[in-house]
Please model this.
Amino acid sequence: MYWILALLLLGIAAFCVAWPLVRRAAAARSAGPVPDAEASSATVRAVYQDRLTELRAEIAAGRIDPAIQEQVMEELRAALLDDYRELEAAGAGRHAAARGTGGAGRLGWVLACLLPLGGLGVYWIIGEPSAGTVVGAAAVLQLDPDRDRAEIEAWRERLTRRVAREPADAQSWYLLGSTGLQLGEFADAADAFSRAHAITGPDPVIDVYWLQSRYLAQGGALDPLSREIAERILARRENHPLVLELFAIDAFRRGEYADTVAYLNRALTNDLAPQQAQSLLAGLEQAQSRLEPQLPTVAIEISAADGAPADAVLFVIARPPGGGMPYAVVRRPAGVLPLTVRLDDRVSMNPELPLSRAPAFEVVVRLSRSGTAAPHPGDWEWRSAPLAADQLAAPVNLVARLEAPAESRAPAAASGT
Model:
């Protein structure tokens, strides 16, 4: 369709150039043939002969003085010469015009043929002839690898041809990498994203997919380049869930369970889809089970009554009784309720003031409609009784049942286990 439209436009342009020239040539032909030069010369000679006969008759009749007869004859010859010169000039002009109009017609048709060919040639040299083949390629990002595999493969072939001709097209490299990810060809995907990065420089979207494809191509390993990409992503977004999840998996494989817990706690501060959040929570629980228990440790089993706002954010806060600077804060998406949250020194906000140094604290569980830890009208909130240091010699379990704001809530008693 692209080439049909292009040829149509070039044809119109050629017609606009050629038509005036062809039309002028046709008009000249319709005006009739150029007068024959010999016939015009004969006419001039006949006129001269008539005038010469008349002049002689005048001389014979005595009406012209003999003294000026020769002068009159010279003037008649001079007039004849002038007539011949005018006749030659006019004839030459008419022949040139005839040749010009004929040449203009031929030139018009030549231009009509050369203009489209020249336009196509210039476009092939400095344009992007293959661009039409990848129009709409961004749709590949919305395709399903299982249902639309054939269509994804077709786009991959088109994009491969495109980057072969236009290797500086970063967008096509990025889309080619996306097709590789969708088709499970992770090494090819990583190479395509690398090419896109080389053209654009650091780009958050390219970096994320480049890291993901490298990680999968290497069987779940993070080599130095992958770590460099990951750190660059975290420098722009410190709690990026994908990067933190990859770091957590890598740490778990090396047996660094405390680091695993730290990475997953950070990842869970994001607004995640319930399925992704549940997956991270399962990994967190597994990593915590490999660690030696810390004291103090408070585990809070949290649930909410019907009608809890699904768009809220869950905060679990350990703070001085009655309020003050928190010792520890855990953030979770509300969609994962019910769940259990563990508070200990590993989630302390300030390493210089960990939970273990608090003389006493209370636990506040809040469903925040504003998305911030500070209280606002409409929040669902539960608060524990103060927990003193002598109650924290063993792990403590609390049960927090969140209710709508209009309902009364009594502080819950802590029980050691």
User: Anything to note?
Assistant: The longest helix spans residues 66-126. The chain has three domains: 2-126, 137-237, 295-416. DSSP finds eleven helices and nine strands in the chain. Residues 45 and 79 are 11 Å apart (CA to CA).
